[in-house]
Amino acid sequence: MAPLIEARQLYKEYAMGEVSVAALRGVDLVVGRGEFLAIMGPSGSGKSTLLHLLGGLETASAGEVALEESTLAELGERAMTVLRRRRIGIVFQFFNLLPTMTAEENVALPLLLDGRPWRECTGRAAEALAWVGLADRAHHTPDRLSGGEQQRAALARALVIRPQVLLADEPTGNLDRAAGGLVLDLLRRACSESGQSVVMVTHDPWAAARADRVVFLRDGRVVNELRGPGLTADSLAQA
User: Fold this and answer.
1) Rg, C-alpha atoms of the chain
2) What domains does the chain contain, in order, with CATH numbers?
3) What does the alpha-carbon distance between residue 65 and residue 84 come to, in Å, rounded to a whole number?
């Protein structure tokens, strides 16, 4: 499988008063094209920090991240913003939908910010909402959507740009099993049908079992890796 993202010797430190805390300690990681990769580990292991570095939301203290030909640290702020806007979709645990906008408007927003024509924005938003099963909720504001529907709208917003990679930080963390299963099915489809790479941070073995490969972090280091087929919640819980 050809690589899409390569992280090399990533270190990340945070200043906590006069003390420096190491979140990542020399992480190497390759994400293949069309691969569904899950990152697991205990709280404080560096999972979300790694995801933020892969998406250019934070900069590494040392090491580098490359998305195809683009080394993220070499991009200026504007170029990094454009790259994220056009090539990286991001889904968070908390849905981050704008409360005064409809689902369609929330989904169309990334395209509007990129300067696309309104008709194109709304047309592609409608397609994305239909893809996640929310065509009949397009004109509902978030307060009229269930938690699972809000997360699917957030996923549609990430997918509307047709990204190369989708980064998901605990996307099922606030959902029950049924709603979470729908979101995981859609992430799986993004890989198998659209050829997009998915990198998902999760603490839940049941969610991670949907991935092609699972990387385990502890104390800021990669300590284990398992790959399917045959990944199960039980095998991941015991790893």
Assistant:
1) 18
2) 34-59+76-238 (3.40.50.300)
3) 13
| Omega before 229 within 30 of 0, i.e. cis | yes
**Phi, psi for residue 237 in degrees, rounded to 5:** -65, -30
Nearest-10 crossing angle of helices 147-159, 177-192:
20
Q: What is the pLDDT of residue 1?
A: 65
Question: Could you give the 3-state DSSP secondary structure of residue 10?
Answer: strand
Residues 44-57: tens digit of each pLDDT: 899 999 999 999 99
Contacts of 125 by beta carbon, 8 Å cutoff, 6+ apart: 104, 105, 107, 108, 111, 138, 156, 160
At 138 the pLDDT is 96
176: closest CA among 137, 204, 210, 211?
A: 204
Model confidence pLDDT, tens digit, residues 94-144: 888 999 999 999 999 999 999 999 999 999 999 999 999 999 999 999 999
